[in-house]
Amino acid sequence: MLSCLFAFLSIMLLLTGCYDKKEIEQKSYVIALGLDKVKGKEGLFDITFQVENPEVAGPAQGGGTSEPSRETVTLTANDFVTAQNTANSFISRKIALDFTRVLVISEELARSDDFLTIMETASRTKELRNNVSLIVSKERASEFLKNNHPKTETRLHKYFQFMIERAKETGIIPEADIHRFFQITEGDADLFLAMYATAEPNEKEDRHEDQYVAGEIPQKGGNTTEFMGSAVFKEGKMIDSLTGEETRLSNILDNTMQMKDVLAMYQDPKKDKYYIAAKYIQKKDTEIEVIYHKKRPTEINVKVPFQLEILAVPSLIDYSSNKKNRELLKKAIESDAKRKFEKFIKKTQDEYKEEPFYWSLYVRKYFKTIKEYEKADWSKNIYPYAHINIEVDLEKIEFGNLIRSTRFSEVTD
């Protein structure tokens, strides 16, 4: 009898593992989380939850429905974890952060001392995953999320996934998530780059394709939300923003970043009013050599190997079959790229006193202990005064499927 009772109680203990189980339909999944400062109230933040409706956004919802595909709510709280319970006073389902895709921070908050205060919560909670993307919005995060209306993607989580993945592949935004933010910030040696975006574009003068920041692209129609460029963080606070071109340059110099499909414009060396369109291909990592000197400036030698596939030559100059023209084009592109790299690196040394390329990894081998490395101080004593030599090596130029350039000049008499 006692053995049966013991066996029964053991089985009951095993069954208690599901006591707190929640069905999928009982949860509200937050896809985007927004953080803003509250004017005049220190320590309080406006927390915005953008929740996706699984019954509308799912692929098997069947017939039409009048329900909205998402719900966006904002409330004031000390942090976004405890704000979940407050939000459940008017949201029927349990709020869950398990599938959150993006954390949107307003530029105002990112530039303040309060940013690290609320980000400390993100490092502690188990609900928010470390691969959540960090986005800095020019406007308030609540306005960014409310004004973001994708035209061709009804599923919000897929919109953010596809948008961010594609923009990272082209290099116009950096790879930025919570894990990388804490990794670089706690290292206290390099700059962190976050994605820069806005849903309130302003008209600006026309530039080349990657020389904009979010809000400056002269688009007409479609979703007004723009992802372009990056927000620069130093010691956990935003200090500046970079254009899409500068972000690409930074990604090329950082071997921890990956770009797969980069299209670039180069000035035609024979007719400077035209620009040549090309696909940038980098099959090898950028070569980075740091030679540390204790009593004189450190030397940093950088070599960028890449290839180009020419896509368009509006000037109709024959660069494919004319060897002399091809050599002229190669030298012009290498010279232009070298000039841009040198200008951007000088900006990081003079203005930021730190770099966003994660080059501190290459100097650590010169120090036996962490204390020695910290005492040498990469960001204050080494990098700003380093002598940096940039070499750009255009290994190969391809001209697509054409054996020779099309002779459009012969069409007219």
What sequence of helices (H) and strands (E) makes up the elements? HEEHEHEEHHEHHHEEEHEEEEHHHE
Average pLDDT taken over every residue: 83
How would the global form be characterised? Answer: globular
Radius of gyration: 26 Å
Instruction: Give the oligomer, counting copies of the same chain as homo and different chains as hetero.
Output: single chain
Total domains, how many? 2
- In terms of per-residue confidence, which ranges show pLDDT below 50 for 5 or more consecutive residues? none
* Percent range for β-strand residues: 25-35%
Structural class: alpha/beta
Tally of DSSP β-strands: 14
Q: Tell me the major beta sheet.
A: 9 strands, mixed
Question: Number of helix segments?
Answer: 12
Helix content: 25-40%
Question: Main traits of this protein?
Answer:
single chain, 413 residues, alpha/beta, GMP Synthetase, Chain A, domain 3, 2 domains, 9-stranded mixed β-sheet, 5-stranded mixed β-sheet, 12 helices, globular
Give an overview in words.
The chain is 30% helix and 26% strand. The chain is an alpha/beta fold. It has 2 domains: 24-253, no CATH class; 261-413, GMP Synthetase, Chain A, domain 3, CATH 3.30.300.210.
How are the SSEs placed, and which strands pair?
Layout lengths: L1 H14 L11 E11 L7 E8 L1 H4 L12 E8 L5 H5 L6 E3 L5 E5 H4 L3 H11 L8 E5 L3 H7 L8 H15 L7 H10 L4 E7 L27 E9 L2 E6 L1 H10 L8 E6 L7 E7 L5 E5 L7 E14 L10 H30 L17 H7 L1 H5 L4 E12 L15
Parallel strand pairs: 1-4, 1-5, 5-6, 6-7, 13-14
Antiparallel strand pairs: 1-2, 2-3, 7-8, 8-9, 10-11, 11-13, 12-13
